[in-house]
Design goal:
Rossmann fold, Spermidine Synthase, Chain: A, domain 2, 9 helices, 32% strand
Length: 279
Amino acid sequence: MAKLTGKWATEVYKDTAFSFKIKKKLYGKRSKYQMVEIFETEKHGNLMTLDGCYMVTEREEFVYHDMLAHIPLFAHPNPKNVLVIGGGDGGTVREIMKHKGVKVIDFVEIDEDVYTVSKKYFPALVKGLEQDKRVRFLFGDGIKFVKEAKNKYDVILVDSTDPSDISGGLFSSEFFKDVYGALKSDGIMVMQSEDPFYDGHIISNVQGRLKKLFKQVHLYLAFVPIYPSGCWSFSYASKKYDPREIRNKHSKIKKFNYYTPELQKAAFSLPQFVKELLK
């Protein structure tokens, strides 16, 4: 939980703590689902916490959103229909919008308050979302939504919080089966799957459950400074495509902030201790 002590906001996670020096607290209100708080930091722009856990800062958000969105969208040869579950800050949808070949972006976030707050305090994250006619705002339960979707999506991105009462179901075998059914015959799913230093068991469980369903299951890493350990994982699952090849020739994106074509392969080169989690 993030605690405010003097000029410092601190998140205590297990046996570690990470603090931001702040100028002031900008917002704090409990939504229907969770406590949403915004702080203005000294060096990292605005910071969002949900139930006291760091979610995003303006300075580093590009890392997570680039790597969640672009790896699968370049692995697929022609992604047209994309579903985002979670990601209420808007950053993942913003990155998908850069792929001009995408025709539909269904945005399913359970807590509309997170998006509303982001519009005020994180304008760069939501820039253009409401003007892009491809984006369909479908605020509600992503677990229920996926259960009713069949053979519909080329790519599904699960941009969730840590496993909790709200998001725990997004890490379950039942949910993965529903995702499999919602994907087309060559569909791809990517989800954030926590960090390998402190939550290796979550990675192991997610990877094991996905391997029972999908032909291609892989793990890749990125450097996300504000999350526990700074090393974050993403789980990739596809009915057909190995992720280490760029197949999408339709997305003529000239500039990225973190992603590079080289990372399409390099991000899957794992340290030995992470490989051990996948055995």
